[in-house]
Sequence to fold (729 residues):
Amino acid sequence: MNIQARVGQQPLEKLQRSRILIVDDQQPMLESLQALLRINGYIADMALGGAAALEMLQQTSYSLVLLDLQMPEVDGHAVHRYISSKNMNLEVIVVSGESSFMAVKEALRRGAYDFVRKPYQVEELLTTINNALEHHRQVRQLRLTEASLKESERMHRFIVNNSPDFIYMLDGQGRFTYVNDRVKELLGYKPGELMHRHFSSLIHPHNADEIHNYFSEQRAGERATRNSEIRLLVNRESDQVECLENRELIVELNAIGMYEADEKGGRNFIGTLGCARDITARKQSEAQISYHAYHDLLTSLPNRVLFDDRVTQAFAHARRYEQEFALLFLDLDRFKLINDSLGHAMGDRVLQQVSERIQGCLRAEDTLCRFGGDEFSLLLPNIESKENVAAVAEKILRAVRQPFKIDRHELYLSLSIGIARYPQAGETKEALLQGADMAMYHVKASGKDGYCFYSDAMTTTTSNFLSVERDMYLALEKDEFELFFQPKVDPGSHIIIGMEALLRWRHPERGLIYPDDFIAIAEESKLIVPLGDWVLRQACQEVLRWRQQGLPAIKVSVNISSVQLEQAGFADKFIGILQECGIPGSTFEIELAEQSLIKGRKDVVKTLRVLSDYGISIAIDDFGRGYSSLSHLQNFPINTLKVDRSFVREIESVADASCIVNAIALMAKGLKLHMVAEGVENLLQLDYLRKLGFNEVQGHLYGEALPASEAFIMLRTRPQTGPHFILPN
Ligand code: C2E
Ligand code: MG
Ligand code: MG
Fold:
């Protein structure tokens, strides 16, 4: 920069404001110089000799020193050395009579701005002073600018390096020329490690095809790459990266081309500048949201939406490759019972375990889905044969039949499975779903715990089944229900001591329908309440008929569903009906399935107590099938335990002491409960039970349930004394 040339243009005031120190050992010299400077508008101090100069330099800050070299004691060289040693930011003009070449050279070498010989030319001196001050000002300005540049550089570096994003620059060939510090945490590289490496070494193979477009030359202005989602590879050797699980980082990439003008007015591509933002966390939460949209939260299985999609895919695949697939509907049998008796929390855990068991029977490509409640659906793509599917269904049934141990409960469950195959059962999704549904109901209707393939013949019977609920309402109005009676006998004397009322539905088209096929539906629809009332009234009518005919009074048992029992005012209604008919409570016994007592609701205990106080005896039906303990049942006013027929069926030899009935009998005796066995079909069983001390038995050995009219005849024609049955030996 040519300082001299610009002196004249500097505003004088600016330079004049600077403070000048005049150092000389001659007082007159000092005074004349000071006067000259003041006249020219400068502020000037005087130092008489080197020692005084040193003192003043320490106290005041000067822009310029006019320094005489030759002085006694402390000379100009010493002052100059002092200035240099203190690195003082000021200019020195040597004003000296000494003109030896060596002295001047020494002063200039030490950094003096200029040399003015005494006696000085006023003009020359003032010009030199002016120039020196301008130089001083410019140096100071330069230093300030440098410092502020340094600061601003430091700030930008700070901003770039602390940016949450990975900021980079590539050269024209796609090699890194700059990366910010962030790359350490995000990708596990030190910035230096990436320098001059090609960007492609960071790109996940998944994005390998498209990535070159993102960095191509055309990426300028509107066409810059904006927020393109790509995956970057994380440094495998690094231990700095937090989310190393999958060794990849999902980022939103921005890239813009950098260009340089060429001589012909065109532009040359010189590289790419951009940043990449880590969106892994966002992707994870998006994934979670979409997971929730497509999965059942309880079991983590796909939900209906996802299942639908998989079925659509299965169709496309099967059509293209001429394959078969199967759609299965699975419904837990009697699940409502578990929910009702053990509570929903337990029901939920059962569903979780059931879904795990089913899943354990499947291939990776099969899709199990929870349709809600206790319904599951299953897609088996690419199946070879009907036998294949049957094998899977059997495997699932076997797995679910194994007892479930949840807390202290041991639960026995089963499934009903309906199967529809593509293309045999239909060519559309709707047809297959409907087919599987019908087949499943077919299994339900024929005893549950099994599987069944859809067939065309099913359409009519199953749709009948589906309309059972509606039909039952009508049946009640049209009086299609009937009460049958099965004798309960003293196993020692073979005398009838009671009758169990068992419900039948005489369907005009389908014939006699047994309770297993409609009670559950009646319970679900709450139709069991009016139906139960009807049963009790009917039983009362029969008792009155027997009484009118002078038959000896016997006890009548009616089955009560938990739905009825939990109805408010049940006990009052029950007793009310007996009172209407004038029948004492002691004539009746109610049979409650064990499961209906498990929850031990306070109001149920109260209801039972009211009934019991009225003389009605209370029996636990199907005992042993539920999950209760006798100690729990002690909370209820119970008179009788009726052992489930499945345990009676187990009795195979007289000597067998391992039968569960033994244990039950022992406990029941301890609790002084009346013991009844149902389902007795042979003499061996009868003998066994009698020896165990059972008070009553019931079963085909003595007779099946009979229509009321036949039961009436049986009672009327039985001998007045002695056994009512003669059994073969
Ligand atoms: P449950 O109360 O345990 O009735 C005994 C069932 O065993 C009856 O079947 C009876 O016919 C059958 N059974 C009797 N002896 C033998 C035998 O020696 N061998 C075999 N294998 N079975 C025998 P049913 O009549 O089909 O009734 C089934 C269930 O339906 C009953 O079981 C009861 O829980 C329910 N139920 C029947 N009538 C009513 C009713 O009026 N109301 C309610 N809520 N439930 C009822
Ligand atoms: Mg019963
Ligand atoms: Mg029973």
Summary: The chain has four domains: 12-148, 153-286, 295-473, 479-717.
